[in-house]
Amino acid sequence: MTTSDIIIIGGGPGGYVTAIRASQLGMKVTLIEANHLGGICLNWGCIPTKALLRSAEIVTNIKHAAEYGIQVKDFGFDLKKMVERSRGVSAQLSAGVKHLLKKNKVEVVDGFGKLMGKGKVEVTKDGKRVAELTAKHIVIATGARPRVLAGLEPDGKLIWTYKEAMVPDALPKSLLVVGSGAIGIEFASFYNALGVAVTVVEVMDRVMPIEDEEISAFAHKALEKRGLKIITKAVVKKLDKAKDSVTATIEKDGRATTQTFDRVIMAVGIVANIENIGLENTKAVIEKGHIKINEWSATDEAGLYAIGDVTAPPWLAHKASHEGVICVEKIMGAKDVHPLDLGNIPGCTYCTPQVASVGMSEAKAKAAGYQVRVGRFNFMGNGKAIATGEPEGMVKTVFDAKTGALLGAHMVGAEVTEMIQGFTIGRALETTEAELMHTVFPHPTISESMHEAVLDAYGRVVHM
Ligand SMILES: Cc1cc2nc3c(=O)[nH]c(=O)nc-3n(C[C@H](O)[C@H](O)[C@H](O)COP(=O)(O)OP(=O)(O)OC[C@H]3O[C@@H](n4cnc5c(N)ncnc54)[C@H](O)[C@@H]3O)c2cc1C
Description:
Blueprint: E1 2-9, H1 13-24, E2 29-33, H2 39-44, H3 46-63, H4 79-103, E3 107-110, E4 112-115, E5 120-125, E6 128-140, E7 144-146, E8 159-160, H5 162-166, E9 174-178, H6 182-193, E10 197-201, H7 213-225, E11 229-231, E12 234-241, E13 246-252, E14 255-261, E15 263-266, E16 270-272, E17 286-287, E18 290-291, E19 304-306, H8 317-331, E20 347-349, E21 355-359, H9 362-367, E22 372-378, H10 383-387, E23 394-400, E24 406-412, H11 416-428, H12 433-438, H13 448-457
Parallel strand pairs: 1-2, 1-6, 2-3, 6-19, 8-15, 9-10, 9-15, 10-11
Antiparallel strand pairs: 4-5, 5-6, 7-16, 12-13, 13-14, 17-18, 20-21, 21-24, 22-23, 23-24
The structure holds flavin-adenine dinucleotide (FAD).
């Protein structure tokens, strides 16, 4: 029986960051990981997709090379190498996490952790018990897996989840992507850039439905311009598999049609990994399939905490990490610890063009009772965007008309996943329109569009 101050079950961006912070605060830490350090994010999520998308971006740039005065003859690409590179990046970062945990004196136990009563965790590997651990504090960071819809179950061959979509043996000629959230749209963008005929079916009335309506509409047009076929307000009712293809029954406006695709990617959300971890013997409450926590990540069972994808949305790596840091800082009574502001977590989608946002959309702000002032700026008025050949994009800012508080910022276009952090910091510092207007933005940068979108909200836009 090994005793630590804290046991963390799951070594994703939630678990491993929590482990490091707990160690920095002086705790003796044990981290249990069943599969791969770095979790879904490093191994099957955030990182390997960005590696693939980078390959796709380079292909696209080469296709447009002539516009920049560059002649490229006989270019081709090697899908196997793209996948190998993506897997290599994941392996490199996962090894990096192992090193960081060692450096921070975190004990890592390889196996599946299960709660066995107050403060006790059993670890098994290949059906055998490999460790019995005890600690005053236990953090569940077991993450999530793809959501499966009845009748549309992935088989790993013709109907893929994100895992198979990330390691294709060959390019399909045609692809159906079910779901237009960040994961679905990123894969749609990747395969489309490599020449696959991609159709996206979305049940809601617009793509990336959690984004501001104007940004969704802008992205929809831009994606269609690149060749994606998008069907909104439609439901995939049935998937009939043949030897090497799938026929989808798609219902829209009460009418069902069928269409055949080489492959299908199901990207309809996630479900939390809450099974077989001994939660039934605790007072922890499950709400909408995820573990209920308070503002410090404490569950209803004393000494038991949960963070990341196993808890309520947003299901993002940076939310998972931050939640864990706050959780252990609170346990250790660190100074200035305050709850996570769920309203100020940026969300990014790395399709082309990229999409990024933080805070409330215009519709949400109005629904929350705010009288809003809205600013917009199109990249067509931005020198850097024109110079780099990326004039397709916009920034939208939403302010509280009474106080000048920045309620939300929404962007589509090149580099916006890097730029959104500017507005996130602004919101964290409770900035107002006046401070943003007084801030000097470097020239020429696409970030000047952020400044202009603020100026526009107050009738002072310069380059439009
Ligand atoms: C294709 C894709 C792309 C994504 N892109 C982004 C992105 O660009 N940006 C972003 O912020 N988010 C992205 N995400 C979401 C992101 O991956 C998750 O939000 C994040 O990984 C959640 O972290 P976590 O630590 O809560 O869980 P996970 O990363 O899921 O880690 C949980 C870990 O716990 C382990 N585990 C589970 N049960 C046990 C057990 N009983 N014992 C021991 N170990 C266990 C698992 O093996 C896993 O390693 C993406 C997700 C996918 C699928």
